[in-house]
């Protein structure tokens, strides 16, 4: 008996037996790049989850049923053509052979997309009302189009069935076509497709009828809905309970997936995929409320990250299945690890939302801390195998995420690994980031890596500044420099960094500089550091103006994350100013004067403040690299062709006992400023071949 036994109790949806209670729910992967076909990358991504023990995967968030529902925006799956059927067969076979089940979410997105891509379609909504998030103007859907799209849903469901998938999920959430008809916020019609409750329900009901008739009684047909749109003019929880009960009474819905919030504004979108600033399972009560009024299983997925959460939710009977989608992205094998009593080895999601924020930028979904996720098709492993070659002496300098991942992978390969870190704790810039009010869970990245280094027996030396002589004394076969970077506040001499007139965001977050009362933050990067420094200063009682030369503060932060910063900053009365460059800083008495210039007009203005914080990225700490480069056998070079092809570096085939020196590599911000994922990715694809 295990304390997690409840997670592994099978349960039927219709006649389909799901082997456990953990589901990977539908999300847009941005992997169906071949005209909406499930590519090899797509298949292997879901196969890995099935290998790792997932009971049910619902793939293809926002997969389109009609040719005029834009597919290219998120590279979603295209079910409007029979071409998809053999691709589905490959996907189904890959998941089924590991004991998992696979379904797909199908939808017509209506107004929820962009028109300027792919086939340049005319977007539609029940009443021609624009969607704020995509800034999408649209036409009012005509009755003939309504019936055509209903038929398209049925045809798409048949294609899923013929492709061997186990079911379909009708998307009636996130302001897609079905719930656009439901919501009085969007549906202002007075004909049979609007006005009354039954009128607003009619489109979804006709879709359900058509799909059920097309696939028969035994094929799973689910529905994903919101429990509350969180809009004053939208659907509230009581209304959603009424809607759920109405559809449940037909006997045609096999399960309901329930989430909280609408997402047609930036602010509500941030609720739908809660980042680390949210409490655990913040909208569970909405799913529990829906479960009270329906007779079929209920799935809930929002900010459920660890097995103890899942266990408690199921034991209390709030829902029947827990969706742990981002948990699967962080570690697709976490279910197997629970089963094998290896809970401490689970790489737990930290809610950074790097995955979903990339999707909202039209980029492929990746995990901030697991570089193998979605790269399975390239050969990047989730389980590192032992080397069958020589055991090497590997020395890693720098204990940030890149250095820690390099040490972890090298140790998993069976090598002797020493990691040297000058600070008294591991984590590098992640440790700094975690000190910000909304970023504390970033420390989870470091915590897992540190636990793995301990498990693997890596010799970790903290509080030790490495130099060239120390490295030579350690006699490494391979030396990996991951020494990070330093805030680049000296770029403009007129900022006065040399005279101490400005400080960095690191100084603020680390607590090495006391917060001023009136503070100007100048942020050229517009990602997390500047916003985090502002949030931190405001929490300490400072008055803050956040200035950027870019189009808006935080413009580089993704769509599910910048709104939570804006909520916090506006509440604390921050001033946010765009399009101003910091030209010069000078002292005037006991005050600092910032001279700002508008890039477009050349007009100058001044601010008199107590403190000026500059966020201008980093420059690499590369002195040690250049000191060692000449004596290394590869002159510090990484062969990009083999690196990008996920192949072993050519230098690894050389005999390192010939006295020609160590192999020397550098990665992460020690090369140039990128991000946590980039450092971890480089570490994995270099060290997996050691």
How much helicity do the residues have? 25-40%
Low-confidence stretches: none
Give the percentage of residues in beta strands.
Answer: 15-25%
Which structural category do the helix and sheet elements fall into? Answer: alpha/beta
Description:
- The protein has 690 residues and is α/β, with parallel strands linked by helices.
- The chain folds into 3 domains: 5-378, TIM Barrel; 393-486 and 620-687, Rossmann fold, CATH 3.40.50.720; 489-616, FAD/NAD(P)-binding domain, CATH 3.50.50.
- The protein is 31% helix and 18% strand.
- α7 crosses α19, α13 (401-412) packs parallel to α15 (443-455) and α13 (401-412) packs parallel to α22.
- The longest helix has 20 residues, at 143-162.
- It is globular and about 80 Å long.
Q: Brief description of this entry?
A:
By secondary structure, the chain is an alpha/beta fold. An eight-stranded parallel barrel has the order 3-4-5-8-9-10-11-12, surrounded by six helices. Strands 15-14-13-16-27 form a five-stranded parallel β-sheet, with helices on both faces. Strands 18-25-19-20-21 form a five-stranded parallel β-sheet. Helix 1 (40-51) links the parallel strand 3 (22-24) and strand 4.
